[in-house]
Design goal:
The structure is a homodimer.
Chain A (H helix, E strand, L loop, with lengths): L4 H8 L3 H9 L6 H14 L5 H8 L4 E6 L5 H16 L3 E6 L4 H13 L4 E4 L8 H9 L3 E4 L10 E3 L2 H14 L5 E5 L6 H16 L6 E4 L7 H8 L9 E4 L2 H13 L9 E6 L12 E4 L2 H16 L8 E2 L3 E3 L17 H4 L2
Parallel strand pairs in A: 1-2, 1-3, 3-4, 4-5, 5-11, 6-7, 6-8, 8-9, 9-10
Antiparallel strand pairs in A: 10-12
The first copy, chain A, binds a DNA duplex through helix 2 and helix 4.
DNA sequence: TTTAACAATGTAAACGTTTACATTCTGAGA
DNA sequence: TCTCAGAATGTAAACGTTTACATTGTTAAA
């Protein structure tokens, strides 16, 4: 059993309170007393017990982190940012993932509340309908959402304006002469962000007098992207000349699939992603994508949560800037092929 | 302040111990008593305090997880596996990353020891020289390494045989007629795995009577891959016809860079990766790579650590199987070009 | 009806640390 | 030298829960 503050006190010939004052730097100590305590700590290999401290102070100096998955680097990057900012303030992270499942969200929050984390940073499937957030609010535990659209629920979130980003994507593609646009997205029910991106994208296109984009909702994990694209791109004369993907992993997957069915990116079809994950700049073609500042978002969410925990105001919604990063995967609209039905149509 | 067991006891008209027995399912309770306790819990919105429980039982039911970075999906996948196995046993994860820095490793372990995590799962830069592991052993806290080579230190690890994998990569490439091999790796001082892969790769090539491979050690984050490759591939008659990369992110990066300098993969140069991250199967060309079972490794490490915590034997080294997954990024050795210095040589 | 054995429940101390309040020590000023 | 104010340190209870041991209740058998 590791040494406790009692052992240190006994060894140094002082009281528990004196050792506590030394460890925490609270209150003055005579140099000789401090030296004796320090020596006792070293001799005993004492290490403060955060559990005892948590009980007596009612603060654990830990933050709960709940995200859908670590498989998407956009969440990994954010957790890195959270970790940095938390560490800087002496906080630890208690972590869990939910695999986009609402019941898992509730279970995760429940458990973190049992561990008495001081606050939480989390991404839920839908900020509007989140029993997990209801639980947090009922418990009075501060939290900040990450990436979620705060929408009409006015729940505090660090995010970007996904609707505006979707619109800007549409503007960019239309400006390049693309008139037949498509979108490939993950599940809308699992991501209010994907919904917002689609909504902005579609609204802009329709407002500009173009036909609404074809929207493909795919299960990225189950690798049905290629099949879906074969159908979408079957008729080159009516197929989209540009595809907006709801995240970068999907965009990368779409590019691979397009090339496999004989289409060149961006010559035959342009592809535009979302998130700005690092690998996108190392590929060929490099990815044109909407970059959200994931690491900054993680840091910002953490800082404002910690500010709240340290007596500041409640967390609020913060919209950070995104930027459209031009890569090689988007080019001018392809000119119509001079021949009739495309070579693709003839492929078995 | 949330309700405590005292409040529940008062409300139900029973003792603290009775409420504790109800919560934990230890000891028998009359149905009427159980019902009164249950009603009191519901009325008060009581939620057990894991901090109090941890202090009195000396167990936190949490595991510390220390990994270099979440930026590489191989770690994210492993953490997903750890999370699954831990959750199944009612454990939480306390998480931190070290960015491949030994001082950070020590600080991370130190802090997790303060929080009294029951055990740790971690990846360190070098299992042979790890002050963080010295600290854990001195504290008597069980741990399992993940991915690290256990080598002569005999520290418990869940890993694969990286040396054997390196050899098998060499065999595979030599069997395809490649005679001039190269390796692109991340920093060896930050990854004993990368060292082991190089050692196996090199040993096999030399044993087969071929010249030792050219080894490029690059800083993937600082995007110097392309510059390095231009130099390596300058003279097509002497340049490697296949490159082994120490991880998949690097391999993907190398493919992009090769294509950008005008070389086709695998026609002009083959590229083989390591890890088996999911995105590798969605690219064009799909990645030929050594797949380690990251999620399984995470689960296995967790299970054996938990078995130890629950009275079983100490964690041991477990070597899980890897497999060489054939993709499209490796092909037969390119036949020498019929002309003199390559076009590449003339590019400014 | 009484007794005894077992079930059910209560009591109280401990886990490690913090900290309000109390006590002792020290040094400066009268 | 004495006194007083502030410095330094000690005391003890509390934080929430667990659990060994004690006590009370209940039921069946004699």
């Amino acid at each position: 059993m590791p040494s406790t503050i009692k052992d240190v006190a006994a060894r140094a010939g002082v009281s528990l309170a004196t050792v506590s004052r030394y460890i925490n730097g609270t209150g003055k100590l005579r140099p000789a007393t401090a030296e004796r305590v320090n020596a006792a700590i070293a001799e005993l290999g004492f290490r403060p017990n955060a559990v005892g401290r948590s009980l007596s102070t009612s603060h654990t100096k830990s933050l709960g982190v709940v995200i859908p998955s670590l498989s998407n680097p956009v969440f990994s990057d954010a957790v890195s940012g959270i970790n940095e900012a938390a560490r800087a303030e002496g906080y630890r992270l208690m972590f869990t993932s939910t695999e986009y499942n609402r019941a898992e969200e509730v279970e995760a929050v429940s458990s973190l509340l049992e561990y008495r984390v001081d606050g939480l940073i989390l991404t839920v499937a839908d900020a509007e309908e989140a029993p997990a957030l209801d639980l947090l609010e009922a418990a009075g535990v501060p939290y900040t959402l990450l990436y979620n659209q705060s929408g009409r629920s006015a729940r505090p979130a660090v995010t970007i304006d996904n609707v505006a980003a979707g619109r800007e994507v549409a503007q960019h593609l239309l400006a390049l002469g693309h008139q037949r646009l498509g979108m490939v997205s993950g599940s809308f029910s699992a991501s209010d962000r994907a919904m917002a991106r689609r909504d902005g994208f579609t609204a802009e296109i329709v407002a500009r007098g173009f036909p609404a984009p074809r929207v493909l909702e795919v299960d990225f994990v189950n690798s049905e992207v290629e099949e879906a694209l074969v159908l979408l791109m079957r008729d080159r004369d009516t197929a989209p000349t540009a595809l907006f993907c709801s995240n970068d992993l999907l965009a990368i997957s779409v590019i691979g699939a397009l090339e496999r069915i004989g289409l060149n990116v961006p010559e035959d079809v342009s592809v535009l992603g979302f998130d700005g994950i690092a690998i996108g700049t190392h590929l060929h073609p490099t990815l044109t994508t909407v970059v959200q500042p994931s690491r900054d978002m993680g840091q910002t969410a953490t800082r404002q949560l910690l500010a709240c925990l340290q007596g500041g105001s409640d967390p609020d919604t913060m919209i950070l800037p995104y930027r459209l990063q031009i890569g090689e995967s988007v080019g001018p609209a392809a000119k119509p092929s001079p021949t009739g039905p495309s070579e693709l149509n003839q492929t078995k």
